[in-house]
UniProtKB/TrEMBL annotation, chains A, B:
Substrates-to-products reaction catalysed: L-ornithine + H(+) = putrescine + CO2
Cofactor(s), by name: pyridoxal 5'-phosphate
Enzyme class, first EC level, given as a word: lyase
Lineage of origin: Bacteria, Pseudomonadati, Pseudomonadota, Alphaproteobacteria, Rhodobacterales
Protein name: ornithine decarboxylase
Organism: Maritimibacter harenae
Record keyword Cell inner membrane present: no
Orn/DAP/Arg decarboxylase 2 N-terminal domain: residues covered: 34-268
Pfam assignment, any one: Orn_Arg_deC_N
CDD domains: PLPDE_III_ODC (cd00622)
GO MF, any single term: ornithine decarboxylase activity
Length: 385, 385
């Protein structure tokens, strides 16, 4: 996954052409909404009859939501504010699922009154809250699946064990809710469709056990995990999605409702960040590595570099010159604000303060992660092409 | 450092009394500015003739800066916005140092025109930038010191090696700048004054070598590292600071200008966050641990729980009831948004959704770290007592 410097800013997509000439005074995310639409259709082609519920948290920019509403997307919301955003752009509340398993009571009541009918849960207490504030709602139970094949494996934070999932269906029924199905997550940035196999096997076992116990499940939420291109080869979205649906079909048969929640896989490649090199230095003259400090860091948009999990490609006007290893860091006076240190980046030896740095495929999990103003640096700006 | 549940909300400081009755609709940081003033005077008493340059990044709330200006504090700024903030509250530009070693060129020019005369640097290119945009300025060179005794040891991000520091003084002189001294950082939350010894020894060696080579240094910036109370015993601020100054005096003698940059040590204990329990659950019925989800997490104010580095004390109205181990997590649909998992927290077994959770001594590095709206959750609110 080592980055090899390419011709200056090549290949020239619409975004790359735009960012080359754009004048900005702070780190700026440039988004191409037409590209979002293109990516949506690619994924939809592979997913077939499954509904796409866009994971709004990946990028809640209004223009993206507006476009997705217009082309028929459904939505996965994490909070009241995300539901309000979708509604404000004309989304049908019946097309919005409230997918956070940890919801504020007031948010559940708001969603219910707004017409949202589908909620996620993984615990008794969450079902109690839903039953009290969205009586009669449909719920799907999120299950935990072990997985270590994703680039960013998920922790145990969400979901419950299989046997508990069935207990929760019983409990939901008791509370007057409708337990309609299961959800799971294979892990963010799961690079190949084949990596879904083990997880799908495990979920199918729970699914069929629940059916055997008399629960007429009709909804399978396969979550996200659809990858974006960060330098390593991935399949085309339509190919990838079609293969996942084949794997699903083989295990679950003809499920009436299948939903998928791409976030990163839908929007990451639709944006690039314009950043600037603030300083290139060495700690001592005989150091092998240079330190390269950008005007954007972990607390101003690049939160996903935590643990060096997501490794962005970076283009500079000096690409093509000889390269050398660099430790990449952000601008804040925070020693944790280092992007890549364990695996240094190869960047041009000619790079210097004032040079532009384009962070490619940065349309997901950047702008909304940005801090309100840590160290006095303003939040990441967003420009729509 | 295991938290032991105490009597409900005891001991009752002014902040704890206030947060008990305050009605809020989202996570809220409550600040007591009188307490900031008290803490300032405590530290000042120990630091003697050293100037306190408050590290604005720790908490840039306007009311804190205003009060500190009024009682004679100086300031350490990380960016143009922090300088503007200090100036807007009446700070004398001569009392503001621009301590970020990675500065935007435009910010240097702004600072220079505003009257700021003291800048940090640790690299040739940074000196070039300062010489071009703040000609004739005073600079201090930040050196790297190895240290593993702080609760949050700093990375190698800032500073240069000792031999290079002297080369940089020569280079600064060549550029028409005034190399006036050295700075360093012992590491955040250095709990005992004695832990400064090794670092001070190392810096003193560089200091005396520079003096021997003809640099008439007159400024020593001892940085931050002053601890806050998070449950483990620490010395009173005045005792701690006095002991550090003794250690400094023994190694550096009578330095004309000494500056200290407390951030956490000045404001952490002056604030508490009002949060709410959203969900208490188990992944399976035979789990030993409960999962407790709060309405605040790593991306909405508690960034310093990364790696479980800062371990906040949490008070609930059910303190006094029997306790059991809990994994603590934030509200977002992000699997990395887990606060304490490796070392679970002991919390009341009676804790449930809707209960208030008071996060004590959370006045530093919380509000400004908060994201602009990840997952649709609004940034941490701030209320001044």
């Amino acid at each position: 996954m080592t980055y090899v410097a390419q011709g200056a800013f090549a290949p020239a997509s619409r975004i790359e052409t735009a960012v080359r000439s754009m004048v900005v005074d702070r780190p700026t995310l440039v988004l191409d909404v037409d590209r979002v639409e293109f990516q949506y259709h690619q994924l939809k082609q592979g997913l077939g009859r499954a509904h796409i519920h866009y994971a709004v948290k990946a990028n809640p920019t209004r223009e993206i939501i507006e476009r997705l509403v217009n082309i028929g997307s459904h939505f996965d919301a994490a909070s009241r504010a995300e539901i309000e955003l979708c509604l404000s752009q004309g989304a049908d509340p019946a097309d919005i699922s409230f997918g956070n398993t940890v919801k504020k009571v007031g948010d559940i009541a708001f969603a219910h009154h707004a017409g949202v009918t589908l909620f996620a849960a993984d615990a008794e207490e969450e079902l109690d809250k839903i039953a009290a504030h969205a009586p009669g709602a449909e719920v799907y139970i999120r299950v935990i699946v072990e997985n270590s094949q994703a680039d960013w494996p998920l922790s145990r934070k969400f979901g419950c064990r299989g046997e508990k999932a069935i207990d929760l269906m019983a409990y939901a029924t008791e509370l007057g809710l409708k337990p309609v199905g299961l959800s799971f997550h294979v892990g963010s940035q799961t690079k190949r469709a084949e990596m879904w196999t083990g997880v799908l096997d495990a979920v199918a076992e729970i699914w069929h056990r629940a059916q055997a116990e008399g629960y007429a499940l009709d909804l399978l939420n396969i979550g996200g995990g659809f990858p974006a291109f960060y330098g390593e080869a991935i399949d085309a979205p339509s190919t990838y999605a079609a293969r996942v649906m084949e794997l699903v079909g083989a295990r679950f048969g003809d499920v009436p409702r299948v939903m998928a929640e791409p976030g990163r896989g839908l929007v990451a490649e639709c944006g690039a960040i314009i950043a600037e090199v603030l300083l290139v230095s060495k700690k001592s003259d005989d150091d092998m590595h240079r330190w390269v400090y950008l005007d954007i860091g972990r607390f101003s948009g690049l939160a996903e570099t935590e643990g060096e999990a997501i490794r962005y490609q970076i283009a500079t006007p000096r690409d093509g010159d000889p390269v050398g290893p660099c430790i990449l860091a952000g601008p804040s006076c925070d020693s944790a604000d280092v992007l890549y240190e364990k695996r240094p980046m190869m960047l041009p030896v000619t790079l210097k303060s004032g040079d532009r740095a384009i962070i490619r495929n940065a349309g997901a999990y950047t702008s909304s992660y940005s801090s309100v103003g840590f160290n006095g640096f303003p939040p990441l700006d967003v420009v729509i092409l």
